[in-house]
Design brief:
Layout: H1 2-45
């Protein structure tokens, strides 16, 4: 029974970590897009 509980908790932490990294990746991607858009706006004004 203890092995089942430990396995369940481990799986929960692993899956939670995957979602966290996925969210972090999306945040970094949107920040990169914002920088790219800003750079293109400045280039168009020049």
């Amino acid at each position: 029974m203890k092995k089942l509980v430990i396995a369940s908790l481990t799986a929960m932490f692993v899956l939670t970590g995957c979602n966290t990294f996925k969210g972090l990746g999306q945040d970094v991607k949107s920040a990169g897009n914002a920088v790219t858009d800003s750079a293109q706006d400045v280039q168009n004004k020049i």
